[in-house]
Backbone:
């Protein structure tokens, strides 16, 4: 086992001090700076919900697994643990994410490709292949190589979206979210070709937990709360989950 579920830290639901998009610490604002900028420049992203499974800050077992499952000795071990986490969490909370996206279900499940072309199949596809909820709906709708690769801000031209996405309600899976550039760009690319709804499911929401007092407080609350796969940021009604 690459990591024990008891080592995971929950993301906190939207509240004062928590970004209403990516659920990281946001100080006194409704959204963190990257998300605020992204939504101001791209109004269509207002309708794209983001569901991060767990905090993945520096030094944590999940962060290590997300790094090693791609290209490392024993990568299969890490991939198996991530697949189990993704399968369980997506099975429990896919309906929560669909509800936030304003739909009753997703027609297609796809993934965020690497920002630059890489040989072979993206490692996250192998993880998705083993999930119950992606079975029969997994399709490649995004490819790398767009014109926006060099930019830090989300752009619809960062990826090439397949025309088959037109009219589709799409669930997009990403392994890691830092600034959200790739995930939000993927959403913009799909909306640009006519997807009717897009939502993002992210395994690990990365940030440096000791970067400031507010961030450390967020992590302390998350650690006290404890990770429980029965809850997500959209359905967590535990009183302590809103104690920030």
Residues:
């Amino acid at each position: 086992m690459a990591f024990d579920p008891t080592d995971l830290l929950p993301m906190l639901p939207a509240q004062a001090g928590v970004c209403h998009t990516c659920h990281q610490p946001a100080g006194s604002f409704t959204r963190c700076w990257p998300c605020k900028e992204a939504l101001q420049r791209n109004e269509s992203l207002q309708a794209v919900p983001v569901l991060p499974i767990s905090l993945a800050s520096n030094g944590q077992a999940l962060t290590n697994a997300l790094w090693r499952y791609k290209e490392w000795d024993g990568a299969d071990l890490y991939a198996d643990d991530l697949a189990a986490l993704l399968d369980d969490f997506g099975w429990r909370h896919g309906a929560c994410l669909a509800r936030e996206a304003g739909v009753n279900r997703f027609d297609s499940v796809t993934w965020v490709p690497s920002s630059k072309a890489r040989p072979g199949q993206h490692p996250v596809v192998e993880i998705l292949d083993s999930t119950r909820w992606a079975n029969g709906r997994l399709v490649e709708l995004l490819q790398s190589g767009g014109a926006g690769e060099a930019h830090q801000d989300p752009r619809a031209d960062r990826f090439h979206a397949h025309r088959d996405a037109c009219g589709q309600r799409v669930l997009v899976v990403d392994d890691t979210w830092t600034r959200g550039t790739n995930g939000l760009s993927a959403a913009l690319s799909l909306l640009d070709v006519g997807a009717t709804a897009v939502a993002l499911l992210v395994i690990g929401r990365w940030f440096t937990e000791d970067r400031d007092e507010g961030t450390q407080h967020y992590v302390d609350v998350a650690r006290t709360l404890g990770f429980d796969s029965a809850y997500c940021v959209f359905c967590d009604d535990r009183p302590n989950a809103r104690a920030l």
Q: What stands out?
A: The beta strands are 9-10, 50-55, 108-111, 142-143, 160-161, 169-177, 197-205. Residues 112 and 174 are 5 Å apart (CA to CA). The longest strand covers residues 169-177.
